[in-house]
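Journal club side-thread
Mid-discussion, someone asked how the predicted structure for our own chain would compare to the paper's figures. Pasting it here so we can look after the session.
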Amino acid sequence: MKSVRYILLTLTTAIMLSLGGCIPSFTLNGAPIDYNVYKTIHVSNFPIRAALVYPPLQQTFENELLNYITRNTRLQTTDGPSDLSLEGEITQYYLTPQAVTEDAYASRTRLTIGVRVKYSDNKNEGKDVDQTFSAYRDFDSSQMLNDVQDQLCQEISEELVQLIYNSTLGNW
């Protein structure tokens, strides 16, 4: 009985030691940026070009984007020429009914926001991105949009910024 335990313990230890060198390392919020090459980023305004306009959304989105870049990189933001640049526009802001009940009324409403982003790597042209990102949140149709709009815009902006970051600076 002791010899079986000894063999199992030895085998388990050998496997653990051999796998120890195979564990990949990565960071969840750090960017794979070579800070010897890239030092600055320019983030333009993101004007609202959607059919339905909620003016505070632009500032909410821009603040979230700048804060996220500041927290997760060592890049300096500039207003002039830079190594990297992000520009774009808010192209979608609309409501759609969801979860229609038996009396043909929607019990949930979806707020969708879309942002078109143009990311330019001024040091390496092959890394440019021109893409539209969208995200949404559902809310109970018994609530007025005015009551939940700020919170929903904040949550959606946070998600959009993470998608944009991962696709551009995060290089996913």
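Post-session note: The longest strand covers residues 84-100.
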